[in-house]
Amino acid sequence: MRTHARPWWQRALLTREMLTILILVVAWVVAVSVVQGFDGPLTITYLVLDVAPVLLIALPMTLIIATGEIDLSVASVVGLSSVTFGLLYQAGLGLWPALLVSVLVGAVCGAVNGALVAYGGLPSLAVTIGSLALYRGLAVGLLGTTAVTGFPETWTDGATENLGETPYPAITLGLLALVAVFAVLLHATPFGRNVLDIGRSKEAARFSGVDVRRTLLILFVLSGAVSALAGVYYTLRYGSARGDNATGMELQVVAAVLLGGVSIFGGRGAIHGVVAGVLLIGVLGSALRLEGVTVNVINIVIGTALVVSVVAPRIAGGLRVRRRNAVTPDEPPRLAAGPPGDPDGSPAAGQRT
């Protein structure tokens, strides 16, 4: 393979993921140096609390985008699961059963998306834009403009309390566990290799024995269930179940995943890069809020980062192809092994050398 022609240290360090980690370190150093109050322990506490739901949703989103699909309904599933959790608690159901039912509702929402995309052959962008409006409408319709509050303090405090005397919230342990699970799933299992093969070429993956439809369905169910879990956390953290909870969060999730090195065309991605992308979005947001910047300006910054994360790899890939052709002008041009528009030229499933 062409990628293995480089030394191992180049393959490990000269990647999009390592670039994101480097930018994260630089952003943190600059924020600590420039923004007053950013270097305190409360910064770490609130940074983790703020990025927790984004990171939760970004983990299954990484696998979905790696297949070349997308799920824009995640934030509305957060709102619907929040409302479900609140209404069930208000009706007298225990918190643990309410949590399980809420996660089940999220899984059903994901199954609907997955069935329409995988078995209905519909584009995921159109399907999840429609379900975004549907699930948000259900959430607001069920609860209206009111909110369910009065959750037990043991649960609300548990969502925000720290680990002993450290500045790290207890939720950090759960996040680390889920990051490890998804990292193993993507990078160390046949299922993860199938996900990347689908992103490189669905047809080649199908001919090599991958059940493409079932894999996509599983990924959308995972996305719905984890988004619902994030909705329960969101509810307990703020002590309020509302239909408009997490409105617009899908922008942060997609931006973080793409900043983390996952190709929007599918076929490549790494969990450690996505974690760095989520933290980068969190650091930028925290620093700008401490400087008194409004939410609208923060959204502009995140949107700009999203556009750059899509355009930059495309430009870099074009420059690499030009340089390669200029060095070997007598050789016939190489056909791209990846999907049309993939700047990496990643080999398709069944085309590895």
Which tags fit this structure?
353 residues; mainly alpha; 69% helix; disordered C terminus
Topology:
Elements: H1 8-13, H2 16-34, H3 41-66, H4 74-90, H5 95-119, H6 124-143, H7 153-158, H8 171-187, H9 190-200, H10 202-207, H11 212-238, H12 249-259, H13 271-290, H14 295-327
Major sheet details = none
* Second rung of CATH, namely the architecture: Orthogonal Bundle
CATH class reads Mainly Alpha
- Mean pLDDT comes to 87
Number of strands: 0
Number of domains: 1
Distance from N terminus to C terminus (CA atoms, Å) equals 6 Å
Region (Disordered): 326-353
Pfam family, one: BPD_transp_2
Protein name: Autoinducer 2 import system permease protein LsrD
Transmembrane segments: 21-38, 44-65, 72-89, 95-121, 133-151, 171-196, 216-236, 248-266, 273-290, 296-316
Describe the structure.
With 353 residues, the chain is mainly α. The chain has a single domain, classed as ABC transporter involved in vitamin B12 uptake, BtuC (Orthogonal Bundle). The protein has 14 helices and no strands. α2 (16-34) runs parallel beside α13 (271-290) and α4 runs antiparallel to α5 (95-119). The chain is globular, with a radius of gyration of 21 Å. It starts with 7 loop residues before the first helix and ends in a 26-residue tail after the last helix. The model is unreliable at 343-353 (pLDDT under 50).
